[in-house]
UniProtKB/TrEMBL annotation:
One of its GO terms (biological process) is tissue development. CDD domains: EGF_Lam. Residues 428-441 have a biased composition (Basic and acidic residues). Residues 35-286 form the Laminin N-terminal domain. Residues 428-458 are annotated as: Disordered. It comes from the Eukaryota. PROSITE patterns: LAMININ_NTER. Keywords: Disulfide bond, Laminin EGF-like domain, Signal. InterPro entries: Laminin/Netrin_ECM (IPR050440), Laminin_N (IPR008211), LE_dom (IPR002049). Pfam families: EGF_laminin, Laminin_N. This is Laminin N-terminal domain-containing protein. It comes from Pelobates cultripes (Western spadefoot toad). Residues 1-17 form the signal peptide. The keyword RNA-binding does not apply.
Length: 458
């Protein structure tokens, strides 16, 4: 019974096309040998491995200390941001920390005291490594979501940028674009850059906090509802030009262009209620390893693929020394369900001609354990990362966390094929404004506490 169970554990992922092992030890035929497979690392929570940059200088609140209010209680401006006080400071690292006890911790910008000059903030996340999105990007805002925002990506470490999605409460007014829904995309335009109003309209700052980049819905165009047919997505990745690249990036940039307005116009007499506050940025992705690695570790300040198939490099993007008898090629999802390893080979070996197609007669003999148990362990698991660059990194990386397989997917690389005509949208000069409303401001003492997720202003 036990050997059967071990066999099932070993073969099940391959049967589902999860590509989670790079090679297996096969005992069929005259002599045992390695059989090589296309493989990829599991998805990981990537926020702990990013370098973060918040611009422009001085955009973070607290220096000097200032009071702010909220849309729910606009004339109760009792909260204070003070960078010199640990309990009242809102530094960038609070966008990536682990929150406990139901308390939201968040980065916060200065208030819009320079209105009508736009309140602009850029938040850049850099991985120094190509990664492939496997789930939605989710940015969580406290005190309301921005009414204008652009999510951008870079594939060349921030040299060039491309829009991923535009967000506005009125796409036409903000960007001169029609508002579109992701679910209206089809296989022909799955990588189209759009503007959405879904995440920018006012619904109460506590009711709707998240702004998404819908990766799963785009995957579902190919893989169907609940992503049940991932093999169809993988085949599309091979077939549709630019599809893999669309989900690949080295950097993300969130451009905040106009804060939440509370469902109305800007009220000039109370600019203390306009600001940005972000409590979390979730990015779930896998290392891009060109289907040549099943694990990815944090070493020497960045993520590195643990390359197999005689490949090497951060992305397994070239052949190892002495394995250059054929040109390097990325592994392939084709043919389904196990793909092709496209290994680098040495003269005289047959490494790259091991059939990638299913061989039912040999699978019954495939051993569940490899000859070297440590090698097997190495392939299946991700090891603990080392310390990050202390200067740029916002926090030490957390222990490697894999994302459950059913929450994620896969993808791979090359330059982006996004619609460049959308790259240089100007911010409208006119920011909507209404005549000032004359009400008496009521200042009360600061509570000096961070705010409960359940709401401080009940
Ligand atoms: Ca937080």
């Amino acid at each position: 019974m036990l050997p059967l169970a071990a066999f099932l554990v070993h073969c099940f992922p391959l049967a589902l096309g999860h590509y989670d092992i790079c090679k297996s030890w096969v005992t069929s035929g005259d002599s045992p040998s390695w059989e090589y497979h296309a493989c990829q690392p599991k998805p990981m929570f990537m926020k702990g491995y990013a370098m973060v940059k918040v611009e422009p200088p001085g955009i973070t609140c607290g220096d000097p200390a200032e009071y702010f209010c909220t849309h729910e209680n606009p004339y109760l401006c009792s909260d204070e941001c003070d960078a010199a006080n640990r309990d009242l400071a809102h530094p960038p690292r609070l966008m990536f920390d682990k929150e406990e006890d139901g308390l939201a911790t968040y980065w916060q910008s200065v208030t819009w005291k320079r209105y009508p000059e736009p309140l602009i903030a850029n938040i850049t996340l850099s991985w120094n490594k190509s990664i492939e999105l496997t789930d939605d990007i989710v940015v969580t805002f406290e005190y309301g979501r921005p009414t204008m925002m652009v999510l951008e990506k870079s594939l060349d470490h921030g040299k060039t940028w491309h829009p991923y999605q535009f967000y506005a409460d009125d796409c036409m007014e903000a960007f001169g674009m029609m508002s579109n829904k992701i679910r209206e995309l089809t296989t022909d335009n799955a990588k189209r850059v759009q503007c959405t109003e879904e995440y920018s309209r006012w619904a109460g700052s506590k009711k709707e906090k998240n702004v998404r980049f819908d990766v799963r819905e785009r995957f579902a165009i190919f893989a169907g509802p609940d992503l049940r047919k991932m093999e169809n997505l993988y085949m599309a990745m091979e077939r549709v030009k630019g599809l893999k690249e669309f989900f690949t990036l080295t950097d993300l940039r969130i451009r905040l262009l106009r804060p939440a307005l509370g469902g109305t116009y800007v009220q000039r007499d109370n600019l203390k209620k306009y600001f940005y506050a972000i409590s979390n940025i979730e990015v779930i992705a896998r290392c891009k390893c060109n289907l040549h690695a099943s694990s990815c570790n944090f070493r020497d300040g960045s993520l590195q693929c643990e390359c197999e198939h005689n490949t090497t490099g951060q992305d397994c993007g070239r052949c190892k020394k002495n394995f250059h008898t054929k040109f390097w090629r990325a592994g392939s999802y084709n043919p389904a369900p196990r793909g092709s390893p496209n290994s680098c080979t040495q003269a005289g070996t047959i490494l790259d001609i091991v059939s990638p197609t299913p061989k039912p007669e040999s699978t019954t003999l495939r051993k569940a354990h490899m000859p070297d148990s440590s090698a097997y362990h190495h392939e299946k698991y991700i090891s603990t990362p080392t310390k990050a660059n202390p200067i740029l990194r916002i926090s030490d990386p957390p222990p490697m966390k894999e994302v459950k397989e059913n929450t994620a997917i896969q993808v791979s690389t090359i330059p982006p094929v996004l619609e460049t005509k959308l790259q240089h949208r100007e911010i409208p000069e006119k920011i909507r404004a209404a005549p000032p409303i004359h009400k008496e401001l009521t200042l009360t003492p600061s509570s000096g506490r961070k705010h409960s997720k359940k709401g401080t202003y009940e």
